[in-house]
Structures are given as structure tokens and as C-alpha cells.
Write a structure and sequence with these properties.
Blueprint: E1 12-23, E2 26-38, E3 43-47, H1 54-61, E4 69-74, H2 79-84, E5 88-91, H3 103-114, H4 117-120, H5 123-129, H6 145-157, E6 163-167, H7 175-192, E7 195-199, H8 203-209, E8 212-216, E9 223-228, H9 243-260
Parallel strand pairs: 3-7, 3-8, 5-6, 6-7
Antiparallel strand pairs: 1-2, 1-4, 8-9
Helix pairs in contact: 3-5, 3-6, 5-6, 6-7
């Protein structure tokens, strides 16, 4: 369970959520009647083809977009209220670090903006949590891509959110760094235990990280599969060679092919 999540209350609950974008060429149905629930402390990945509405769904949960229809609750309240209460942390594909600020200053930035001293006092703790001790005074240009991703995660965790939204945070990393960051994320998640909604194009990444993998179809995005991943935790690097892992990966590829048809 995440830091602020109330027992017995779903971290995220969507019921028949639809999103239509108005464009000059006409209305575009991006998300079609999506329903899903994420329990407190649960790690759920969403996979699907480009343009299927994965990011739209995440942005709706994070109060960055409004649904056209349907209902949703986040940490037992509206997305707007959850955002105001700092229940939601967001990590995007680009770390979006300010180049003229150190690691410590980048992580502290949200607390400075909102004038919250209690949060600012947790900056060192979060930097330690993501394994960046000794790099507090370093600038983004002095960090590897994986280290920059860690700074972004630390910044999102300073409020101890009960829900962490991650939109392809490792998508720009090389394969070796990406694999290393997957297991680093598992470690961080096991220490902090927010509910995680994680968007990725990588089936193996989704299986390594998640308790469940949700598959979306090509646009209009519909949820076509919700797969329970029952590998015990903690998970090790040799999980990829497990026959069950190979079978689930094959199954999800087939579901994606069906969703694209």
C-alpha cells in the first residue's frame, strides 16, 4: 500500500471511460468505454499499439485530461481532488530536468513551487531511495540517461504519492540500461509501495515489472485483455528464461495482433 492510500479503497477505478478529441477533421474516438481497477500498492502495466489511447487514459487518471463520458475515482476521490492532495506522482518518458539545477535542486523543485517545507525535507531521503547518494550536487549533463530517470522518479516520490503514473519512462534508454532500470524500479516500488500505472511498448518489460498487464486494442482504444502475472517477488533477471514467461509473452503478442486487426 502506498504512503497515503486508505485501506479498502481502490487506488484507481475507471468505469466505461470514453475520450473523444475534437479536431478540424472531425471527432476522434481515442478511448472507448475503458473499465479497470487498480488496487492499492498494485503494479499494473498497459501495453498496446501507438495511438491506442494508453497515454490518454493515463492523463485522464492524472487529471491532465477530462473524460468525455464515464466515471473514475483516484484514491477514493476525483482525479482533481487527488491531484490537489498530491496523491498522484507522474513520470514521463523525458525526465524534464532543469539543466541549470543540480540533482538535489531538481528533486526539490515541486516543494519550492508549492512552498512545502515538509516535502522539501524529504528530498535527501528520496535521492537515497533511488540510489543517487553522492550525486546530489551533480547537474543533468553529468548524469547518464538512467541516472536522469532516477532523478525524475525521486522528484515524483517526494510527496509520497499513493499513485505513481509512468508513461514509458525508460523508452529512450539503451537496452542494457533499460533492463537495469527495470529492476531498480522494482526495488524502489517495493520500498515505497504506491499503486503504479505503467505505460510501455515492451511486453517483456511489462511482464518483469507487473502484477497485471492490461492490453489495449488499436484506436479506438478498448481494453481487450487483463492478464494476471503470478511470478513471485522479488524477481530476478533469469525470469525471462522461465517457460511460463515465454508462454505469457507469446500470448500477449497474439492478443496484440488480434487487437491490431
Amino acid at each position: 500500500m502506498g504512503f497515503g492510500q486508505e485501506a479498502g479503497v481502490a487506488a484507481i477505478e475507471l468505469k466505461e471511460v470514453t475520450k473523444v478529441f475534437e479536431t478540424d477533421a472531425g471527432d476522434v474516438l481515442a478511448l472507448d468505454r475503458a473499465s479497470m481497477t487498480v488496487a492499492p500498492g498494485e503494479f499494473v502495466s498497459i501495453i498496446g499499439p501507438s495511438g491506442c489511447g494508453k497515454t490518454s487514459l493515463m492523463r485522464i487518471v492524472g487529471d491532465l485530461e477530462s473524460p468525455t463520458s464515464g466515471t473514475l475515482t483516484v484514491a477514493g476521490t476525483s482525479p482533481e481532488e487527488a491531484r490537489k492532495k498530491r496523491e498522484i506522482g507522474v513520470v514521463f518518458q523525458s525526465p524534464a530536468l532543469l539543466t541549470w539545477r543540480t540533482v538535489e535542486e531538481n528533486v526539490r523543485l515541486p516543494a519550492e513551487v508549492y512552498g512545502e517545507r515538509e516535502v522539501a525535507a524529504r528530498v535527501g531521503e528520496m535521492i537515497s531511495t533511488v540510489g543517487l547518494n553522492g550525486f546530489e550536487k551533480s547537474y543533468p549533463r553529468e548524469l547518464s540517461g538512467g541516472m536522469q530517470s532516477r532523478v525524475s522518479i525521486a522528484r515524483a516520490l517526494t510527496y509520497r504519492p499513493s499513485i505513481l503514473l509512468m508513461d514509458e519512462p525508460f523508452g529512450a534508454l539503451d537496452e542494457i540500461t533499460r533492463e537495469r532500470m527495470q529492476f531498480e524500479l522494482i526495488r524502489i516500488w517495493e520500498e515505497t509501495r504506491p499503486a503504479v500505472l505503467f505505460i510501455t511498448h515492451s511486453i517483456p518489460e511489462a511482464l518483469i515489472l507487473s502484477d497485471r498487464v492490461v492490453v489495449m486494442s488499436a484506436r479506438p482504444g478498448r481494453i481487450v485483455e487483463d492478464l494476471q502475472v503470478e511470478f513471485p517477488r522479488p524477481r530476478a533477471g533469469d525470469i525471462r528464461t522461465d517457460l511460463r514467461f515465454v508462454e505469457m509473452e507469446h500470448h500477449l503478442r497474439k492478443v496484440l495482433e488480434y487487437g491490431l486487426s
